[in-house]
Write a structure and sequence with these properties.
mainly alpha; 78% helix
Amino acid sequence: MARFAEMSLKGRVMSDPKLTMEVPPQVRDFAVKSVDQAERAILSFMESASKSVAMVPSPMNDAAQQALAITEKNLKATFEHARKLMNAKDIKEVMQLQTEFLRNQFGIATEQSKQMIGGIASPGGDVAKE
């Protein structure tokens, strides 16, 4: 059923000129600058958080640093995705980019979850021991 709806929507996107996107260059430039500014602010925050975690001795320090590194990687991927979306030519491309991003992020999240669980449960990171 979902596959039929996707195919039906794709057909409409290709044939419906109203679903193309005409974004004025000024709006696109503003969006690019906004994403760049937001990325710098978030990454600055993440850098400060990482330094704070490193300064405070804690049994969970390794896990906290790993979580911050994973979060930073995910944020970078999200900002890259936002840039791709801003350059999309039509709704079909937006849908394609979004589908690809979500599939990719799901796989990455699965791997990151395994890393976190493995890091916490491993002998060097055994929470129960510490």
